[in-house]
Amino acid sequence: MARSSARNLADAAGSGTAEVAGPTPMMAQYIEIKAANPDCLLFYRMGDFYELFFSDAETASRALGIVLTKRGKHGGADIPMCGVPVERADDYLSRLIGLGHRVAVCEQTEDPAEAKRRGPKSVVRREVVRLVTPGTITEDRLLDPGSANLLLAIGRRKVSDAAFAYGLAAIDISTGRFALSEVPGADLAGAIARHDPREIVLSDAIHADPALARLWAETRAAVVPLAQAELEPASAERRLREQYGVATLDGFGTFTRAEIAAAGAALLYVARTQLAARAPLCVPTREEAGTTLAIDAATRANLELTRTLSGERVGSLLDAIDRTVSANGARLLAEHLAGPLTELAAIARRHDAVARLVEDRALRAALRDALARAPDLARALSRTGLGRAGPRDLAAIRDGLDVALALGARLADGTDLPDDLARLAKILARADRDLVETLRASLADELPLNRRDGGYVRVGYHPEIDEARLLGSDSRKVVAALQARYAEETGCRTLRIKHNGLLGYFIEVPQSVGEACLKGLMRDFVHRQTMIDAMRFTSVELGALEQKIFGAADRALALEASVFDDLSARIVAQAEAIGGIAEALAALDVAASHAELAVELDWCRPQVDASMSFVIAEGRHPVVEAALRKSGTAFIANDCDLSGEGRGRIRLITGPNMGGKSTYLRQNALIAVLAQVGAFVPAREARIGRVDRLFSRVGAADDLARGQSTFMVEMVETAAILNQATRHSLVILDEIGRGTATYDGLSIAWACLEHLHEANACRSLFATHFHELTALGQRLARLDNATLKVAEHRDGVVFLHEVVPGVAERSYGLQVARIAGLPSAVVARAGAILKGLEKAERERPSRPRIDDLPLFASLAPPPLPEPAIEADDRLGLLLDAIDPDALTPREAMEALYRLKRERAAG
Ligand SMILES: Nc1ncnc2c1ncn2[C@@H]1O[C@H](COP(=O)(O)OP(=O)(O)OP(=O)(O)O)[C@@H](O)[C@H]1O
C-alpha cells in the first residue's frame, strides 16, 4: 500500500524552525488534516477542484499522469500541487484505489461567506468526510457490477493452548450485506479465498502472528491492521449495539466471541472510513459451521471456480455457467459458487426451483425479461442510505420495485410453486406500490447524474419548484429585453449583457461607446472593467435582476433538494424490506440462470443425498466442453463411479499424455460443486452423496513468489489433504509426486494412495504416469483402475478421450512431443534411447514388481520390514544398460526419467 507521509509537514508546521513566514492559514489547515490522515492521499476541496499537495501531489501526478504545478512556499521551498476537477473525481479515485492507494476526501463543510464573517483571515472549515479504500467504495463507476466488494474483518478466540478459531465478518458496504461465521485455524486460508475480499481488517496481534504471515503476503486484498487495544470484546459488542440501536444482541442470535471481535473490527473500520454518515448495514446473518462445502484456497485455484489460474474471470467455471441477466444476480451466483451448500434440504429447495423453471419455459422467459430491466437495487439503496445517492439511484429504486411487483404478481399466478419460488414471490409482493407511484410522479424522465445539478423533479409535481423555475426562465427573457432597451438607449447595436464568474451579469460595449457612457451617456451605468477593445459596466437594474435570477434558481434547487431528502428518507425507512426484495430478485435471477443453462446445454438435475454415492453418467467438463464447442469439436462424455459398491472408492487413472486425465478429474469435482450449489449438472444422470470437503491438487508449478519449490508446494498441499480429508470428502490428485526424482515421487504417490484408501477412506480420483501403481488395484479392495483410450494410427496416435476400466499400456509421450513440434531429430533420438532403456529393463535379472513390496501397515500387520528394493540399485541396473558412449551421465538421467513416465505397466 502506498504511504504518503505528512510527518515532515507536521514537523515543519509544529516547530516553525524552517518557516520563513509561517504557513498561510489555509496551508496550516491542510497540514493539520493531512497529519491526521498520514496513510491516505488527501483530496483537499478548493472550489471545483480537489487539490493535492506536497508528496501526495507528486504521487498522484505520477499515478494519474496529471500536471504537477506549485502553489506558494513552505519552509522556503515550493509546494508541489496537482488537482482533479470534482466532476471527474470518481475516475481518478478508481485509478488510485486500483493502484492500492487510500484516499481521504476532505470537503468544505461551511459556506465561504460564513468563514468571511468570522474575519478576513479565516479559512473555510474543512473536514475529511470519507476515506476511500478498496473495501469501502460505493460508487457505481468504481465498482464491478458483477462482483461483490467485500471488506473482511478477522477476529479470533483461543480454543486450546495451541489453537485458535477465527471469526470472519464480511461486509459489502455497496449493498449493506453483513455476514458472520467462524472457522478453525486450518480453514482460515480457504475462508479468505472464498470471500475474496478487497480489503482485510484485523488486530495487529493477528497480523503479527508468524503462523499467518503467509496469508497476508499472498492475498490480493489490502491488509489493514488495527491496534488490539481498540478491539476489546466490550467495545466490539457496544459497536454492534450502537449500529443497530439495540440494548442487547440477543435478538440477532448467538455469536461466538471471535465473530463478535470480527464484527467489532469491521464496524470500527466502516465508521472510520464513512465519516459523514453511518453505513446502512443489514442485520448480520450467521453462517453455521459446516453448512457450506469446505474448499481450501489451492483447490479453488486449481478448479478455477471463479477465476482462472491467471486471475481472469473468462475461462472460469463462473464464466461458463453465468446466464444471469442482472448485476444483482451475477453477484449472488458468484457468492453461491464460492460457497456450495451441505444442507440437503436447502440444496433440494434450490434444485426444485430450477426444475420448475426448466419445465415452465414461459415463466422462465417472463422472469428473465423482467429481471433484465431491473436496475441494481441493492447498490442504489446503499448509496441512498449513505447520503451519496443521485437522482438516478432513486429512479433505480423505483424501477427495481416496479419489476418486483410485476414479478411477484406473475409468480403468484403460478400453481404449486416450489417452496423457494413461493417464498420469493411473497417477498416481492411486499414492495411498496405507493412509494413506486410517488417516485414515478416526482422524478423527471431525463435525470441528471448529480443532485446538485437540479432539474430532476418532474414538472407539475411541486408547484413552488415550478414557480421558482418559471421565475428563473422569465428573468432570462427580461435580461434579453433589458439588453434591447440599453442597445436602443445607447444607440449601440453590439451592446451585450453577458455573465461570468467574476462580475456576474455585466453590460459590454465597444470602447468608444464605453467612453461616451463614462461621460454621461448612461448615468446609471457603473464602470467595472476596461478591456483592450471593450468596456464593461453594471447597472442597478441589472444587479436587481441578477439577484432575482439567482434567487429563483437557488430556491428551485433548495426545493428540489428537500423533495430529494423526503424521498430518500422514505426509502431509508424501508431499507430492510427493499434490501430483502433486492436479494429475492437476485435469487430469482440465479435460479432462472441455472434453468436456462440446463435447457441450453441439456444438463440434468442431480440427486444429492446423505449416502457415499458418487455415480455420474456421461459427465462433461463445462469449461472444456464450451471451449471445444467453439471450435466445432465434440466433447466425449465419461462415467464415474466412486461409490465403492462393487466398484472402487478410489479411481486410479493412467493414460497417455493429452488423453484427458486432468479434464476427467476436474469435471467430476466441478459436477459435485455445481450439484451442491443448487444448479443442474453437465451429465445425463448424477447421484452424489453430500461432500463435506473438496480437495484438488495438481503436481504444482514452481511458486517462485512464495519462495517455494514445485515439490515443496506439492507436498505441503498433499499433507493438508491427508490430514484433513474425512470419509465424506472428495479428493482429486493429479500427478502427485511428479516434482521429484522418479523413485521418490513413485514412493510418495504410492504411500498417499494407501493412506487415502485406509485412513481417509474417501472418494478419490488419482491420475498418474507412474504405471507401477496400477498393480495396487489387486491389493487394495476399494481401488480400481481406469485409463483413457487411444487408437494407434500408423506411427501416430489418436486420443479418444474415453475413460475405460483398465490400465494404460503406454504414455505416448514421444507422440505428444512430435505433435508439439519437437525437432524430428530429437524425437528420433528419444525413440532410440527409449528402446534401449526398455530393453535394459526387460533384460534386468530380477525385475522388481509392486507385489514384491510389503503392504500398507494397517492392511498387513505385523510391522513393515524395510523396503525390499533399493531405488539406487534399480537406477544402476538401468544405467548399466545404456551405451555410455552414446549418452552423457546427465542425458542418461534424463532418459531414465522419461523412461519412467513412458514405460507401460508391467
Ligand atoms: N472428454 C474429452 N473430450 C474431448 N476432448 C477432451 C476430453 N478430455 C480432454 N480433451 C482434450 O484433450 C486435452 C488434454 O486434456 P488433459 O489436459 O485433460 O490431458 P491429460 O491426460 O491430463 O494430459 P497430461 O498427462 O499431458 O497432463 C484438453 O485440453 C482437451 O482439449
Automatic annotation (TrEMBL):
Record Pfam families: MutS_I (PF01624), MutS_II (PF05188), MutS_III (PF05192), MutS_IV (PF05190), MutS_V (PF00488)
Lineage top rank: taxon: Bacteria
Binding site for ATP: G655, P656, N657, M658, G659, G660, K661, S662
Keywords, sorted A to Z: ATP-binding, DNA damage, DNA repair, DNA-binding, Nucleotide-binding
DNA mismatch repair proteins mutS family domain boundaries: 729-745
Xref: PANTHER family: DNA MISMATCH REPAIR PROTEIN MSH1, MITOCHONDRIAL, DNA MISMATCH REPAIR PROTEIN MUTS FAMILY MEMBER
Purpose: This protein is involved in the repair of mismatches in DNA. It is possible that it carries out the mismatch recognition step. This protein has a weak ATPase activity.
Assigned protein family: Belongs to the DNA mismatch repair MutS family.
Name of the protein this chain belongs to: DNA mismatch repair protein MutS
Organism encoding this protein: Methylobacterium cerastii
Taxon lineage: Bacteria, Pseudomonadati, Pseudomonadota, Alphaproteobacteria, Hyphomicrobiales
Gene: mutS
